[in-house]
Amino acid sequence: MNVRRSAAALAVVGVLAAAAPATAAGPSPSPKVAIPSGLYGTSDPTYDGVWRQSLTLIAQRTLGYEPAAKAVDWLAGQQCANGSFAAFRADPAKACDSKVMVDTNSTAAAVQALKAAGGHDDAVGKAMTWLKSVQNKDGGWGYAPGGASDTNSTSVVIGALTATGTDPAKVAKAGKSPYDLLAAMAVPCDRTGGGALAFQPDKKGELLANADASAAGVLGALGKGFVTTAGKAPGSTTCVLGKHLTPAQIADNAGANLASVVAKTGHLTSTLPGAMDQPDYGNTADTVVALAADGRVTQALQSYTWLENNALKWAEQSGPAAYAQLILAAHAVGAQPGDFGGTSLVRSLNAQGPAPSMPSAGHETKKKSDGNSSFGLWWFVGVCLVAGIGIGFLLSGRKKQQP
Asked: Which residue, 85, 224, 299, 377, is the most exposed by fewest CB within 10 angstroms?
């Protein structure tokens, strides 16, 4: 979730920075299109409007807020007649045609958001019908319908399936489910980066470890969406050999690899061609969620602490999706998003668009809301563990191990 855009998405839009500002760079240029009143954020939504709106609504519901009706309606209004979503439609009143580049990532994210918000079951049903119709014969999904399957797209669709109460193992094409695709993307234990997941095979058919894909794939293999809490500790801390790995083994292997990648610095690093290595804030936030879901709470807390010390400027300059990612990371480790290094992620996110409301009884308890209350149980336990074993944190940050 580096505003979790897959490599395929970036190739399609042709602009990495527009889809997911990964560094704490300067302010975004003036938008090329007018910002709709129901949309969160002020930057050009051409490549990420549906994505950032979906993450925002999901984060708000996770905190117990009731999203503003105009924000939910804006997202639902982006849907095409066939059930799919594009990254952004400036004129949703105009019917979708072949020029509208619909994609699985935007559609699956919108499903999770609309399901969480409630009241749009018809839109959710149409979107799921479309997603199932474009499943590939290897069991996975590519970013664009008909495109080669990739780990990231397949995983976000698994999240949509789970959100709608559908068992991903039972959604098959030519006898293969999305779990078969993830197994095919797992780097063998005896190879460099063993246990990690590849985004896609390279031109030679080789699988190269990709931390972004690994973080997405852990959640996918565990059958989870964007929102998760700490899972059961894995049975093994090392890569499990085998040609027929179970989804749980795929997740544990990828989790072990991710934990080793962030062990020294607490963060992932971007290695974009022609650019200096830089901290990867977004994918580090995704890694926190993945590690927590896989039961690797100590490692997740280490990376969360690094984010708390370093990622605020990135979030301020990147906008709502970045704030949402950090909120979901806090939720995964039991930390308080209302006090993120002295700043409230909750207020910062809600200020990006239409104000949500807080029902008297949200599906999250009050301690998860915008207060400055003490950290949760996992944070307390993690701090004690970290202090006990003397782990030091290097204040640097970011990844992008793209094949």
From this structure: 377
Rounded average pLDDT over 276-292: 95
Using the 8-state DSSP alphabet, how is residue 31 labeled? P
Q: How many residues does the chain have?
A: 403
Picking from 357, 303, 360, 365, the residue whose alpha carbon sits closest to that of residue 333 is 303
Q: Could you tell me which residues are beta bridge partners of residue 343?
A: 340
Q: Give the three-class secondary structure for 229.
A: coil
Model confidence over 115-127: pLDDT tens digits? Answer: 999 999 999 999 9
- The encoded tokens of residue 214 equal 């690994």
Q: What percent of the chain has pLDDT over 90?
A: 75
- List 279's β-bridge partners, or say none: 269
Are 397 and 269 a contacting pair, CB within 8 Å? yes
Quote the Cα angle for 35-115-113, to 5°: 35
pLDDT tens readout for residues 74-97: 999 999 999 999 999 999 999 999
Q: In this predicted model, which residue has the larger pLDDT, 29 or 359?
A: 359
Spatial CA neighbour of 208 closest among 223, 195, 221: 195
Classify strands 278-280 and 85-86 as parallel, antiparallel or unpaired. Answer: unpaired
Strand 278-280 and strand 268-270: pairing?
A: antiparallel
Return the structure tokens found at 77: 């209004």
The enclosing H or E element of 85 equals strand 85-86
